[in-house]
Amino acid sequence: MTDVSERSGVLSRIFATDPNAAPGDSHEQVVLCHDRDTGLKAVIAIHSTALGPALGGTRFHPYATEEEAVQDALNLSRGMSYKNAMAGLDLGGGKAVIIGDPTKIKTEALLRAYGRFVQSLNGRYVTACDVGTYVADMDVIARECDFVTGRSPEYGGAGDSSVLTSFGVFQGMRAAAQHKWGSPSLEGRRVGVAGIGKVGHYLVEHLIEDGAQVVITDVREDAVNRVRAAHPGVEVAADTDALIRANLDVYAPCALGGALNDETVPALTAKIVAGAANNQLAHPGVEKDLADRGILYAPDYVINAGGVIQVADEIEGFNFDRAKAKASKIFDTTLEIFALADSDGVPPAVAADRLAERRMAEVGRLRTILLPRSR
Q1: Assigned CATH topology for domain 4-17+28-73+94-155
Q2: Is the pTM of this model over 0.85?
């Protein structure tokens, strides 16, 4: 059994009793799910339902410890509250993680058991795809659960949300280029993409179409080979460390979180950071380090919101053109954040947080006005 003192860090985050906790770090609800027969061990974290049901994906990952899994769920769910708020959605923030290697333990029975736990929350949490889960998995989960998005088109779903995630990241990158260099075009710019999985390889296509010079890296050789086969002119860096030290105009972290830290920020040559990964800032203060070096950071949860916009559109009947039109507004939202950052004299990440928190407070407050019945 884990000693209480070892768990206090997680519990203090949930209840916001840690004096060093970040603003908005408390969570409404955290659910631990366990089904021995299927091997399911999952965490569902609901950060906020101020704007509506908590929408966020399910990550399937072989975490080193259960505490690490809980911490990731807390980080990701908080990010979803801010992401959904900045995307203009009437949805709160939540996230779930399933502990284990999806290539080894993922089964129909496990996914359906997980679906029953999500169903037990009666709509407070709506799930979707994330790292380690796919459209086909959502279809399986939906056999036990009504609160699933990111389903396949044959079931009326939005399909692969990576399509609009990459599109939104590209719009955010264009906005950063506009703010930094006076033009939204990436033509002739050298862009490094770290992680060319579900989102990264679509982003490469957008960049090449816009005339950018692209350098890639990924831990999986098959992912690199796939991109190189489609785009032979793409350069390949040996690893992420080599990529960030390469001569770049833009750096796009598109793998797991924590990409911007005390080691990577001083080594960056790029003048813009705009990528798809969640929680790119390893700890508070990194946003200031970037600003001090003159590096323009496009807040991750703002520019990678295309995917959640896509799956959220599914809730009322999916229309791709409508969802893409909403995702295209990421360009304007990102410019608004840069303008606020300049006027307030703060890094863009701080400006984005302020806008998100303002919307959650102002719109969430309206729920105190009693209605005869819920809509």
Answers
A1: Rossmann fold (3.40.50)
A2: yes
